[in-house]
Amino acid sequence: MTTLMPFDEATSTYDPVLGLEVHVELGTVTKMFDAAPNAFGGDPNTHVTPTSLGLPGSLPVVNAKAVEYAIKIGLALNCTIAESCRFARKNYFYPDLAKDFQTSQSDEPIAYDGYLDVELEDGEVFRVEIERAHMEEDAGKNVHVGGADGRIHGADYSLVDYNRAGVPLVEIVSRPLAGAGKRAPEVAAAYVQTLRDIFRALGVSEARMERGNVRADVNVSLRERPDAPFGTRTETKNVNSFRSIDRAVRYEISRQAAILAAGEAVTQETRHFHEEDGSTSAGRAKSDAEDYRYFPEPDLVPVVPDRQWVEELRASLPELPAARRRRLHDEWGFSDMEMRDVINADALDVIEATVKAGAAPATARKWWMGELARTANDEGVSLDDLSVTPEHIAELQQLVDSGALNDKLARQALAGVLAGEGSPSEVVEARGLKVVSDDGALEKAVDEALAANPDIVEKIKGGKVQAAGALVGAVMKATRGQADAARVREIIMEKVGS
């Protein structure tokens, strides 16, 4: 059993240093070096060409849109864009790498020397220095059959699906990040989340972590004091959720601290993260750059981005997430806690779209963070996967604001929209959900309630006006919640003579 030092003790005894390598799959139509479709899923080995499979005689051609997306990412990360860069062969053997090398970039990346300011929930900001952002291709996927949960351990045999081979990637490599102390896990997760938000804002990737569009390799090392040399690092591979990144960093700090406290040495290696308990386990001995025998890719010419084009791309960058959040926070008037809740729920986009469709910020937030958030949680999906649109919510709220619906009826209408019965107006019409505001119908219901509750009438006449609530409730029940409650109260008070 692995020995762990309590996290607080570990971070007070040792200084953690992080390094993060984040891979993002670019949302181009075709792959990085060939015309095979860049699409998620599909039957195994159907999104391939001879180039995807590394077959003899096949030659690569650089995807121009992938270069554009890489430059946009570099600019958003405050990087210098190279005047000239080239691809290299990164040599290693693995079954899902058909040609036994990955076409990547080594000492000549497309973007370098940048930074990203990462804001934590309490407002504290950590600057993460970016060493480089380089282009490369993804590998295929090994499928292990017969083992537990698709793992190689205990599998009867393995298959390879090359659909993902050649998908365009940008890898963003940070410089060592020190000084975070006990906040290191939080900083790591917030950094990757900030990157994910930037990718989406730029439109360069769907950035869906559950699909592996964004993956992080998390490097952790410990040293005895901030001025000491860096310790031996481990690299936990392919962590693909913010919570898992936090847990992986936390576990590695506690594990390495226990090893060092016992007078032993940390092994430089890759490690696998286990979602079920937040632990990591040893993978393979970690290779250094020289082990990959990089050399220039002879089949590809250098990439030389035109300077005017780079400046045009810089001018075309959208408002980036941090600036957008600050602007919306001020425009909407949300408290800091309300805004954090919206961001943590990944609800910013849908709320903004609902406001643009005509709803007030507070009511848009009420629907998405209340009824719809509960529905998404129950169904195990994200808010934007629900079968309701921001326009639906704006329309629903308009019906409430006009008096056509009360909150109870609006929730019933929303349930119909979620069930696929149409727009809010169509559901209201089909289900007969409109508020009853006709005085004739309301007076009849009030008269029945008064006749059935003479004791309550006497209480109201005696000055206990709050007792009218019971009569309002009786009328609402009789009208299946469709009465205009405010008008019902007015009629009751008029009839009782109070």
Automatic annotation (TrEMBL):
InterPro entries for the chain: Asn/Gln-tRNA_amidoTrfase_suB/E, Asn/Gln-tRNA_Trfase_suB/E_cat, Asn/Gln_amidotransferase, Asn/Gln_tRNA_amidoTrase-B-like, GatB, GatB_Yqey_C_2, Gln-tRNA_amidoTrfase_suB_CS, Gln_synth/guanido_kin_cat_dom
Pfam families, A to Z: GatB_N, GatB_Yqey
Record domain Asn/Gln amidotransferase: where: 349-496
Keywords annotated in UniProt: ATP-binding, Ligase, Nucleotide-binding, Protein biosynthesis, Transferase
Gene Ontology biological process terms from the UniProt entry: glutaminyl-tRNAGln biosynthesis via transamidation; translation
PROSITE patterns: GATB (PS01234)
EC number: 6.3.5.-
GO molecular function, one term: transferase activity
Catalytic activity, reaction form: L-glutamyl-tRNA(Gln) + L-glutamine + ATP + H2O = L-glutaminyl-tRNA(Gln) + L-glutamate + ADP + phosphate + H(+); L-aspartyl-tRNA(Asn) + L-glutamine + ATP + H2O = L-asparaginyl-tRNA(Asn) + L-glutamate + ADP + phosphate + 2 H(+)
Main function: Allows the formation of correctly charged Asn-tRNA(Asn) or Gln-tRNA(Gln) through the transamidation of misacylated Asp-tRNA(Asn) or Glu-tRNA(Gln) in organisms which lack either or both of asparaginyl-tRNA or glutaminyl-tRNA synthetases. The reaction takes place in the presence of glutamine and ATP through an activated phospho-Asp-tRNA(Asn) or phospho-Glu-tRNA(Gln).
NCBIfam families: gatB, PRK05477.1-2, PRK05477.1-3, PRK05477.1-4
Family: Belongs to the GatB/GatE family. GatB subfamily.
Subunit structure and binding partners: Heterotrimer of A, B and C subunits.
HAMAP family: GatB (MF_00121)
Protein name according to UniProt: Aspartyl/glutamyl-tRNA(Asn/Gln) amidotransferase subunit B
Gene: gatB
